[in-house]
Specification:
By secondary structure, the chain is mainly alpha-helical. The protein has a domain of about 200 residues. The protein contains 13 helices and two strands. The chain has a two-stranded antiparallel sheet. Helix 7 packs antiparallel against helix 8, helix 10 packs antiparallel against helix 11 and helix 10 runs parallel beside helix 13. The longest helix has 27 residues. It is globular. The two termini are about 35 Å apart. InterPro entries: Rce1/LyrA-like_dom. It comes from Rheinheimera tilapiae. This is Lysostaphin resistance A-like protein. Keywords: Membrane, Transmembrane, Transmembrane helix.
Length: about 280
């Protein structure tokens, strides 16, 4: 009797390792790679670039998927023309996600623009930065761990857990100010639901990666707003009208912390929720 109960603690009725233990293994392997990499970068004096983080999370995710005996297509989505089309669709949606609130603020006279321009080197650096960030965060929050939670507790409980974790991951940025603190927190939480829906509707990471990447790239590199509180130099420099409150413009945090940004992310989330996509939830 004891042996049976002990066995069910680790394995389900089908004899497979329970999803919670797979998540624990994912974190353990990630830590086994992260800590030596941090120590190495500190001793050799190089920066732990986003592409390095993305590569580490990808390798750990693929390793866990291999240990489960499952194909990588279940993790990333089938790498075919459909994957590329979904990536392109995500890029278009990500651009619109930031262009709409910027346009609204411009049309209402709360925002004007100055051309700043970026050299090829700065543009390439920004491109690599935001690709690395998008791949790292989507693999972490919509990849192996999210997919194990879906199998274990269902889609929407998994969405709520990962969205709370996504907010927690931005905690240091959210502590930078008071006027937009709760607005930014709500925006980030709903954005995570939106990225999660992009995965659930396609069962592929292509759409959420494209959406996440281009939202950050448009907000920071093209429009010159802060990205989650991190100041960015863009091709354009936004000039916020005198007296425009931070809750309307987003202040130093970026459009993510503005009411127009919140309205837009809610709109895009509802659209993804209503879209049946190519996979049933």
């Amino acid at each position: 009797m004891f042996r049976t109960r002990f066995s069910t603690l680790f394995r389900n009725s089908g004899g497979e390792l329970r999803n919670g233990w797979w998540i624990a293994l994912f974190f353990l392997l990630l830590a086994a790679g992260v800590f030596p990499l941090i120590m190495l970068s500190s001793s050799l004096g190089f920066e732990l670039a986003p592409w390095m983080q993305a590569l580490l999370v990808l390798l750990v995710s693929l390793l866990c998927q291999r240990l489960r005996g499952k194909p990588q297509a279940q993790l990333l989505g089938a790498l075919n023309r459909q994957w590329l089309r979904q990536l392109a669709a995500g890029v278009l949606l990500g651009a619109g996600l930031m262009a709409l609130p910027a346009l609204l603020l411009t049309l209402t006279g709360q925002l004007s623009w100055q051309w700043h321009g970026l050299g090829q080197t700065a543009l390439l650096a920004a491109l690599l930065l935001f690709v690395g960030v998008a791949v790292t965060e989507e693999l972490t929050f919509r990849g192996f761990m999210f997919q194990r939670l879906i199998d274990g507790i269902g889609s929407w409980p998994a969405q709520l857990v990962m969205s709370a974790y996504f907010v927690l991951n931005h905690a240091s940025a959210l502590k930078q100010g008071d006027s937009w603190h709760y607005l930014a927190m709500l925006n980030i939480f709903i954005a995570s639901l939106m990225f999660g829906l992009a995965y659930l509707r396609t069962r592929s990471l292509a759409l959420p990666i494209g959406l996440h990447f281009m939202a950050n790239f448009t907000q920071g590199t093209l429009f010159g707003f802060g990205v989650s509180g991190s100041a960015e130099q863009g091709m354009l420099s936004p000039v916020i009208a005198a007296g425009c409150p931070d809750w309307l413009s987003g202040g130093s945090f970026g459009l993510e912390a503005s009411v127009p940004g919140l309205i837009t992310v809610i709109l895009f989330t509802v659209l993804l929720w209503r879209w049946r996509g190519s996979a049933a939830t």
